[in-house]
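Honest question from a wet-lab person: if I give you the sequences of every part of a complex, can you actually get the arrangement of the whole thing, not just the pieces? Trying it with mine:
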Amino acid sequence: MKFLFTLLFIASIANASLPQGNYVLKKIQCSNGEDLKLGGKFMLYDVSFDITDVDIKMTAIAKSAKWAPFKLDCTQVNVGKYSLIGDNQYEGYLAVDTVNCNAKAWESILRKQLFGVEEQGVFTYEVDGEELKISNPDTVTPYSCKKTGSYPIYIYTKK
Amino acid sequence: MKQKFLLVFFISLWSNSFAQDGTYNLETINIYEGQGYSQSDEDQANSNSFDLIGAEYLENSNNSSLDDILKFSANATTSGGPRSSGESVQIRGLQSSKLYMYVDGVKQNFRTDHNTMLAIDTENIKSVAIDKDTSNFSKSGSVGGGVSLRTVDASDYLSGKQTKGASIISSKQGSNREMYYGVKAYARDKDSSTILSAGKRNAQDIILGDRSSLPRSAYEDDSFLAKFNYKVQNIDFLIQGDYFSRFDNVPINPTLDPPVDDMELNGKNTVRRSTQLIGVDLKKYQLQLRISNTDQKLKKERESDGQVEKRNINSKQFSVDKKIELSKMRLTVGGEFLADTLSGTRKQEALESYPNGRSRQNSIYVDGELQVSKEVVLGVGIKHQDYLLESNKFESKEDQGLLKKVNVTIKPFESLSLYSNYSEGFNSPKVQDVFADGLHHPGDGFFIADNYFIPNENLKVERSKTIEIGLKLERNIFATDDLISLSASKYWSHIDNYIYLEKIDRAIFDGVNGTTQFVNADKVSLTGNELGIGYLRDQFELRASYVKIRGLNKSLGLYISDLPADHYNFYLAHNLDQYGLTYGYQSVLSLKQDRINRETTERIDETPSSFVHNLFISKLISSSLKANINFDNFTNRRYRKHASNILEAGKDYKVSIEYKLNLL
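Yes, you can. This is the full assembly:
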């Protein structure tokens, strides 16, 4: 059903697209201006976001630092489709494709709290030079922004 | 392929030795896993199981850490990476928490997760005995043996009729620009002897095999040893004091390599150890008494906020041994009584991860050796051991055990010994294992939750049973003045309630924090094979050995992943006594170690094979002046030891000059 819906959308707005390219996540900021802490003493996060004419792909790698007292290496890939619906807005989704961790126990933990996934919805984007901001107030992945009643804004920079 | 080659070589030599009628030369003792050891140096219950590194070897090399000393041993090594502050002795794959450490008969009980270094000046060590199993009942608290160090005496520096003297030693090491200065003064007369020793060692950051510098690996040591022996009638008295301190700025966990500028993971550390020992030997009654007091203090100051953590342990020990000679039987009866008091503070308040507490460990034993016939020696022993842990936060905890051992040595020929050992071990949990509490490490604030130590009041005693079979062949092979030695052994060790650190990390959304706890694994097995070959002829000495260890946590179906790689040790020395010159070659060939638990969060990575070559030269320039030169890892091999996260030092040189002035 989701697939059909997306196909219909793509067919109706064939020429519109986000600024295509490969981006890396600079930070996640709550809509109240507070930055989320991504990474820490022992964990390194590397999130890339690839945009083509109709497809979007997010690859999130969470890896423990070589000086961490534990070894964790997880990669989550989300893929989705999108279509522009107006100025600075697009409609689409981002669904989990794969989750792989060196420690299988962490795969199931990660699947319970997937990173960056979005159900079909309307997203607002903003382009400022090499920087791309994407947000959706109705996101299903609100992180800790939910505590303050705000929602996350993904801020990417072009590779 | 190499293993097969060695095996074939070994068997062919063994076969040849049976086919020849040589003249035996048993005056030379060749122990190729220990070096230059005189059998009178230690009076061990069963020398079948011990590695021994004696003064002759230690005097001819430059050793600034235990790792330098143990690199010649096939069965003992250190883990923890190149920072000596993080080095931890490992024997037959068992880590130091499962082994005992003794210095001059005084048990060294200090240990935290990240501080396992034996705080001692290596210049004061004259011999190292490595017990590979638990059959030495005079030592306690182990499931796999341990290490016993002995420090120098005045008689080690004086010969003949010399009565007093002094020595000055200075050494330099290339890879970390280490400088050592030591001075000793010693004297003896008919009834007494005294030695005073002081040393100072400074080292900068280590240059690793990839020629990078290992940050925060510098240190500064000070040491002092005073030993006074005197005899009154048939009673020998010993009064000894020993002090060692280390200042460094290694990471909070020195086995890891965090960013230099991360002030929370780095700190300034001070380790201080002082020991006072009084000994009485009633030779007439073959009775030996020892009483000692040891204080070890660790102070860590976190650089980010100056937070100071202190961990202190005071150990009091009393031990007694009496030997009884009967016609064909030799008995040793003894006991050891230990009391430790631990305290930890952070900002003047109790340190949860190192709780205040007390422990008491007592053991008494009877060890007998019976010469059943000319060919057969039978050893049996029984030992009772108990422990008690107390902390003001928890209920006290105690347990006990009755340990047995049996060993049989059969000599069907003068040159051949066949032996079989069975021994049991008992290692009680430590206060800091049972009552650990507080923050272990913070999470990432985004996904991974903070991780806290949690106590485990149900932590049980580790108990082991080890069986070993082996043979040793020593005989002439090509001439009357040569000696070939062959040895082979296989052992099986089963450890019940093996204590390990179980770390469970959780995600923030779980709503609960991660935990770290010392827990028991019901069944762990360790097995190993050891092969050795040695050849002595005139001034030449050749040794090679092979060690293979396998370990399995049967409860979880996981490897014991920090076991050393299968490895070969090679040693070749040429002793030109007429010129006071000894030179030689030593190397370790470690095979790939890939028996790791990839699907867990264990930090241990696969380790590639490595072949590390070392050269050494020792020259007695005059009767007063001696120089030792080592060229370590001269091919600059980039390698790391298994279970270490950091490369070892690259090509390195060590030079020492010792000047001795002795007077009649």
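Two things worth pointing out. Chain A touches chain B at residues 36-43, 45, 62, 64-72, 102-104, 106, 109-110, 112-113, 115, 143-144 (CB under 8 Å). Chain A has one domain: 2-158.
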